[in-house]
Design goal:
By secondary structure, the chain is of the alpha+beta class. The chain has two helices and three strands. The longest helix has 11 residues, at 57-67.
Length: 76
């Protein structure tokens, strides 16, 4: 599982992980644990409509392929 401590709603770093709300997206080794600064940010995130990603086989295969790429996260 991957972990991100950057709140996707504010792009601020979440520092107190013991008390921070979170969401786990996905399953297994491709899952991602996302921390939020507040319950409101988490709830707003969960309420967002995922544009074009629902049941899209092509998009899902792109995400799966890049998740296995050793260069993921590289700026080069």
């Amino acid at each position: 599982m991957r972990t991100t401590t950057t709140d996707p709603m504010t792009l601020n770093d979440v520092r107190n992980l013991d008390d921070a709300p979170y969401v786990i997206e996905g399953t297994g080794e491709n899952a991602i644990l996302i921390y939020f600064e507040s319950e409101k940010n988490r709830d707003d995130y969960l309420d967002m409509e995922m544009h074009g990603a629902t049941n899209t086989a092509g998009l899902n295969s792109i995400f799966a392929a890049i998740a296995d790429n050793p260069n993921t996260g590289s700026i080069n």
